[in-house]
């Protein structure tokens, strides 16, 4: 009981700090989306992936699968740094107070957005998580999905994540003392950056790990061109830009919350070596971490999707829903 009381005070203070942070968000609108046809109309009107003509039609399977989980979906607009940012929130149908999950998507701008066909995690998967008894919120980030502003890939766009706890606090269904963090690919980087900047959560799960941007540019040189296109700061000092977005350079600034790390050994986008380096560093500093490498799996771990979601659900239920304290890591020799 003492642990839970202490933790409650800590989370309330953390929420107060975040709500007074420059990234404090004002929820502008919440638009219920009640059917696949509704969702299709919403995207065609508001999502820049479709209004720009880059995507000619919506994914019918995604639309249908989003609603098979019997949860409530809404499109949201919230204000951060004077910009209108779009996103989605998924809520269980039954009334009550629920823990929440902040999901950080991958990709850049409209590529890899929440509604981009082929994204590692999309609306159907987020609806599934909500069906487990969580309010799930996800930002499109500035510069993507119809949001205002420019995407700087881990720059001021991190504020769009830092603002989400104050958005969640405006929903009656959310227990703000129980929040988990889930990120995939670029979303893992966004999760680490948000934690570094003060986001307080009970547990973290990340997949398709981005832990060292310099390794990404070394493996895929064209990524450097993309970074230069997205953010002029990269052109001025590429090494500093990459280091600022690479958790391996500032691991000590992360809170020691339970962390689930998932990766595929055939991940050609970010390579499994990044996950291995991250887990080795976390273990060295005695972070409570669980690491699973899926043999032969791709960036989305699509070959083991059912098992990935089983692991994710168990992790969230243990450390977010049930608030179990993290284990004490002690590998000192005995005897």
Salient structural properties:
single chain, 335 residues, alpha/beta, Rossmann fold, nine-stranded mixed sheet, 14 helices, 20% strand
Note poorly predicted spans: 13-22
CATH homologous superfamily - what is it? Alpha/Beta hydrolase fold, catalytic domain
Q: Which CATH class applies here? A: Alpha Beta
Radius of gyration over alpha carbons?
A: 19 Å
Based on DSSP secondary structure assignment, what is the total number of beta strands?
Answer: 9
Structural class: alpha/beta
Say what the CATH topology is.
Rossmann fold
Distance N to C terminus: 34 Å
Helix proportion: 25-40%
Quaternary structure annotation: single chain
Shape: globular
Strand content: 15-25%
Second-tier CATH architecture: 3-Layer(aba) Sandwich
The overall pLDDT, averaged over residues, is: 92
Q: What's the number of helices?
A: 14
Helices and strands, with pairings:
Layout: H1 2-19, E1 26-33, H2 36-46, H3 48-51, H4 60-67, E2 71-80, E3 83-92, E4 98-104, H5 123-131, E5 135-139, H6 159-162, H7 164-168, E6 174-184, H8 186-196, E7 203-207, H9 213-219, H10 222-230, H11 232-236, H12 238-244, E8 259-264, H13 272-284, E9 289-294, H14 305-321
Parallel strand pairs: 4-5, 4-6, 6-7, 7-8, 8-9
Antiparallel strand pairs: 1-2, 2-3, 3-5
Helix pairs in contact: 2-4, 4-5
């Amino acid at each position: 009981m003492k642990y839970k009381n202490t933790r409650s005070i800590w989370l309330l203070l953390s929420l107060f700090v975040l709500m007074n942070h420059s990234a404090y968000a004002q929820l502008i609108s919440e638009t219920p989306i009640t059917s696949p046809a509704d969702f299709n109309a919403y995207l065609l009107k508001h999502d820049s992936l479709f209004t720009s003509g880059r995507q000619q039609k919506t994914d019918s399977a995604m639309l249908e699968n989003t609603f098979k989980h019997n949860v409530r979906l809404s499109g949201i607009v919230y204000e951060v740094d004077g910009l209108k940012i779009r996103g989605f929130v998924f809520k269980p149908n039954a009334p009550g107070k629920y823990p929440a999950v902040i999901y950080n998507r991958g990709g850049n701008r409209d590529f890899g957005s929440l509604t981009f066909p082929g994204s590692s995690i999309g609306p159907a998967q987020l609806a599934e998580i909500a069906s487990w008894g969580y309010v799930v919120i996800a930002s499109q980030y500035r510069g993507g999905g119809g949001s205002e502003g420019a995407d700087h890939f881990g720059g001021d766009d991190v504020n769009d994540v830092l603002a989400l706890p104050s958005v969640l606090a405006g929903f009656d269904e959310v227990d703000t003392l129980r929040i988990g963090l889930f990120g995939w690919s670029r979303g893992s980087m966004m999760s680490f950056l948000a934690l570094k900047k003060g986001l307080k959560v009970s547990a973290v799960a990340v997949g398709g790990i981005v832990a060292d941007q310099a390794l990404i540019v070394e493996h895929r040189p064209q990524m450097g061109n993309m970074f230069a296109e997205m953010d002029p700061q990269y052109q001025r000092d590429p090494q500093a830009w990459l280091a600022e977005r690479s958790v391996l350079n500032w691991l000590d600034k992360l809170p020691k919350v339970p962390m689930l790390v998932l990766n595929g050994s055939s991940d050609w986008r970010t390579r499994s070596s990044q996950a291995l380096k991250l887990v080795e560093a976390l273990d060295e500093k005695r972070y409570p971490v669980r690491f699973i490498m899926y043999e032969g799996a791709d960036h989305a771990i699509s070959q083991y999707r059912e098992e990935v979601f089983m692991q994710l659900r168990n992790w969230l239920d243990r450390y977010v829903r049930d608030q179990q304290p993290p284990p004490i890591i002690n590998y000192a020799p005995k005897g």
